[in-house]
Design goal:
three-stranded antiparallel beta sheet; 2 domains; 239 residues; alpha+beta
């Protein structure tokens, strides 16, 4: 197999991964708290010797989670929360791990724990579950995350940021885990009665999808022509 086909194969593999990411972004353009994801390509260059052109191979082996703020919509829901600025809410994963999310559509469950729609418990600034007494009526959540009801302080919803934003690993559409350290957020504000929408720019994503598709088709065409050329050479040598 020629070097050109090897080079194109690595590029095609990366383009397929990028197409999958772009399609996932488009599918979640209206998902509350969704963070768009992008692919990072890296180039590997090898010296083939004096007088020979270098060999360049590109692979899509990294990803980035876009942190731009999504649009805020007012719902007036008591436990609907949005973050204005930096930060993530902390929730307890199904296996006890801490997950991070911007999707703040919370509600108390039958046991009184504040949970996500999937039933994962929301954690306070100290990493403990937040309990909402069943007899409370006037629930207020201030911009620093302080949760009070009927004049009683109940908890403080914790906002955190990973030490390295690029260390986030997506666990599902709107939740992430990280192996790095988590730091308290000082410049993030909690808004009660609001939800943050997806930060996907649908027009840009669809435009990028068309570009990736065209690039993939060009690569596929090159490989087919190169395959035909090698077959012709093989047939001539075999005569």
């Amino acid at each position: 197999m020629s070097d050109g086909i090897y080079t194109t194969l690595t590029r095609q593999s990366g383009l397929m991964r990028e197409m999958s990411m772009v399609a996932n972004n488009v599918a979640n353009a209206s998902t509350t708290g969704y963070r768009a994801e992008g692919l990072i390509f890296s180039e590997h260059v090898k010296d083939l010797g004096e007088g020979q052109p270098s060999l360049s191979m590109a692979t899509g082996n990294g990803h980035v989670t876009r942190s731009v703020q999504g649009a805020l919509s007012q719902t007036n829901g008591t436990y609907d929360l949005a973050i204005e600025g930096d930060g993530f809410f902390q929730v307890e994963g199904s296996e006890g791990e801490i997950q991070l999310t911007r999707a703040g559509a919370f509600l108390p469950n039958d046991a009184g724990d504040l949970v996500t729609p999937e039933g994962l418990r929301v954690l306070d600034a100290g990493g403990a579950p937040i309990f909402i007494p069943p007899d409370v009526s006037d629930v207020h959540i201030s911009s620093d995350g302080t949760l009070s009801a009927d004049g009683r302080l109940l908890a403080q919803i914790g906002l955190v940021m990973p030490e390295d934003i690029n260390s986030l690993d997506r666990t599902n559409g709107v939740s992430f885990t990280t192996k790095g350290a988590l730091e308290p957020v000082e410049n993030g504000r909690v808004l009660q009665g609001f939800l943050e929408g997806s930060n996907v720019d649908a027009v840009s994503e669809i435009s990028r999808m068309i570009q990736v598709q065209h690039a993939y088709q060009m690569g596929q065409g090159f490989m087919e022509r190169e395959d035909e050329r090698m077959r012709s050479v093989t047939q001539l040598i075999g005569r």
